[in-house]
Amino acid sequence: MTLAEIDGRIPRYREKGLLVDANLLLLYLIGELEMTLVPRFKRTRGFTVDEFLLVKAIVESFSRVVTTPGVLTEVSNLAGHLEGKWRPPFFTLLAEKVQSLQEEYIPSRHAAHTVTFQKLGLTDSAIILACEGRYLAFTADFPLANFMETNRLDVLNFNHIRSTDWH
Hints:
Layout: H1 3-6, H2 9-13, E1 18-20, H3 22-33, H4 49-60, E2 65-67, H5 69-79, H6 87-98, E3 102-103, H7 108-111, H8 117-131, E4 136-139, H9 142-150, E5 155-157, H10 158-161
Parallel strand pairs: 1-2, 1-4, 2-3, 4-5
C-alpha cells in the first residue's frame, strides 16, 4: 500500500504542507537521532520502530513541513527528559531541523479566544487556527483529531493508520 492509498489527503496537501503535532514530531526526531531509542525513551515508548518509519515516510513525502512555536516548545520540553549522552545530540538535531520547518505564529490571544481553548488548550487551538484551509494536520492526539474531523478540518489521525501495512 502506498502513502496515497493510506490517506487520499496526502497527495492533495503534499505541496501545501503538513503540520505535525508535538508527539509525532518528537517521535520523528528521536527516530532520526537513533531508532533504537524509540521504544526505550519514555516519551516515545508507546510507538514502535515501524511506526517511526511510517511517520518518517509521511513527513518526508511533503515539500513543506509546518509547525508552531507551541509545538516546538512541547517537543523541547518532552525531549528534556532525555538522559545522558542523547540529550546534546538531540538538541543539535532539533536546532538543525527547525531551520527547514515553516513556523506559523498564531498569537496566544487569538488561540485563547477560540471554542477549543478550554477543552484542548493553547497549542492545539493554535494548530487548528494554523491549519484551517491551509495545511493537513498530522496527530496521534485523539481529542485534537476528533475535533478536527467533527468540524470537517483536514487531519491525518495517526491512530487510524498506525497498523497499516504500507511497505
